[in-house]
């Protein structure tokens, strides 16, 4: 075992999407591979996964990079559960009919992230997971999985049975299900699918809006823990370096350069969602939706400046605002002094579906629902014009910050 491997035995994991202990993940990958091989012996491979395999095997550069990334991880001594592209595809295919069980001690909320955890931060993995063709096909694979998770067969663990049931006493204590809309007298407590459970809604009054009639009080768009605050944002910046400064034109995309220009010199508040948190988005200010659009991007790309990112994609959260699949919603505040507020919702890992509900021209009140994340890790940025923010409520350091409740005071406008 190498010194690098020893150093990564305990990894800094934000949000609870993957366990901190590498031994748990190694065992999980080994068990997953065994179940995948058993399924492959009698079940045909999903078309989306077959097409992914064909793309990788048919492109010499992709085939080289994926093979090398796997081999580099194995040479470092990491337990992957696979040693070839073919074996990896067998595991990915198995995940297409997988809904995560609850675990009090070592929850694996993002199985594909767990499977790709080490190859994606090997030297050959950085370029591999930035490849547009690979990400386009990964999107089709993840959409296939999302289809399963949105169907009734994904409800396997929506029950009260310990230790895997999401309604078991341990899970109920962890999640606080009494806060959410559900019906314990109905099968699966009234949830139509895993995604329906994942995107569960709070009961009326569970998350009241702070000072709804005071436009100067800006509220949290998500139930999320603060990750970073940056002032004097640049139009274009080197988002791929260690500090990961935000690059506005890359966040909003080059086609929205005029929009990005509006926020130059402004401030950005970024937060991340926990595996157990609420996953719907709410308007941080009252106003009119001016822009609402989804962007394709990467799914498992790390910032190589982080090296062996000790938190998977967690320590690359600034970087992925410029490259990952995401949704952008821009609200023009009722208060002219606030101007427009950019809300950037980023899918960090696995399905990463960013579902926009509020459309251009629609008026929203502060606290109104505007969209949601389907299954997968996620992060969110609020982007403000220069001179707008007087102060942020969350203040660094954020290493052990707890989640800020959605609809609660997160910033004060001048």
From TrEMBL:
GO biological process, one term: phosphatidylethanolamine biosynthetic process
The keyword Zinc-finger appears for this protein: no
Pfam family, one: PS_Dcarbxylase
Alphabetized GO MF terms: phosphatidylserine decarboxylase activity
EC number: 4.1.1.65
Alphabetized InterPro entries for the sequence: PS_Dcarbxylase, PsiD-like
Boundaries of every L-tryptophan decarboxylase PsiD-like domain copy: 48-174
Keywords for the protein's UniProt record, in alphabetical order: Decarboxylase, Lyase, Pyruvate, Zymogen
First-level EC class: lyase
Protein name: Phosphatidylserine decarboxylase
Origin species: Paraburkholderia rhynchosiae
Taxonomic lineage: Bacteria, Pseudomonadati, Pseudomonadota, Betaproteobacteria, Burkholderiales
Underlying gene: PSD2
């Amino acid at each position: 075992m190498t010194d690098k491997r020893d150093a990564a035995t305990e990894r800094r994991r934000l949000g609870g999407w993957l366990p901190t202990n590498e031994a748990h993940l190694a065992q999980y990958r080994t068990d997953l591979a065994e179940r995948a091989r058993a399924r492959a012996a009698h079940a045909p491979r999903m078309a989306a996964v077959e097409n992914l395999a064909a793309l990788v095997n048919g492109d010499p550069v992709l085939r080289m990079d994926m093979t090398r990334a796997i081999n580099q991880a194995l040479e470092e001594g990491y337990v992957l559960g696979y040693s070839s592209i073919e074996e990896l595809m067998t595991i990915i295919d198995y995940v297409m009919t997988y809904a995560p069980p609850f675990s009090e001690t070592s929850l694996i909320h993002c199985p594909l992230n767990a499977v790709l955890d080490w190859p994606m931060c090997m030297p050959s993995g950085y370029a591999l997971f930035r490849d547009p063709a690979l990400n386009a096909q990964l999107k089709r694979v993840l959409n296939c999985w999302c289809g399963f998770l949105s169907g009734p067969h994904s409800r396997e663990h929506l029950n009260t049975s310990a230790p895997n049931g999401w309604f078991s006493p341990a899970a109920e204590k962890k999640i606080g299900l009494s806060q959410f809309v559900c019906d314990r007298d109905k099968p699966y407590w009234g949830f139509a699918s895993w995604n329906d459970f994942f995107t569960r809604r709070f009961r009326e009054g569970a998350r009241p809006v702070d000072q709804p009639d005071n436009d100067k009080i800006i509220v949290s768009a998500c139930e999320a823990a603060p990750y970073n605050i940056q002032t004097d944002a640049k139009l274009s910046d080197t988002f791929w370096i260690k500090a990961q400064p935000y690059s506005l034109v890359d966040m909003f995309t080059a086609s929205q350069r005029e929009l990005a220009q509006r926020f130059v010199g402004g401030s950005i508040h970024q937060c991340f969602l926990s595996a157990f948190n609420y996953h719907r988005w709410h308007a941080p200010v009252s106003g009119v939706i001016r822009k609402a659009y989804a962007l394709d991007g990467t799914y498992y790309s790390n910032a190589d400046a982080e090296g062996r990112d000790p938190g998977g994609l967690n320590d690359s959260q600034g970087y992925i605002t410029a490259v990952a699949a995401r949704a952008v919603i821009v609200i023009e505040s009722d208060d002219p002094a606030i101007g427009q507020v950019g809300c950037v919702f980023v899918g960090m890992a696995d399905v990463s579906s960013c579902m926009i509900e509020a459309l251009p021209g629609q008026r929203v009140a502060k606290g109104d629902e505007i969209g949601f994340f389907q299954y997968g890790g996620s992060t969110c940025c609020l982007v403000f014009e220069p001179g707008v923010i007087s102060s942020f409520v969350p203040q660094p350091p954020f290493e052990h910050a707890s989640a800020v409740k959605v609809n609660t005071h997160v910033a004060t406008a001048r």
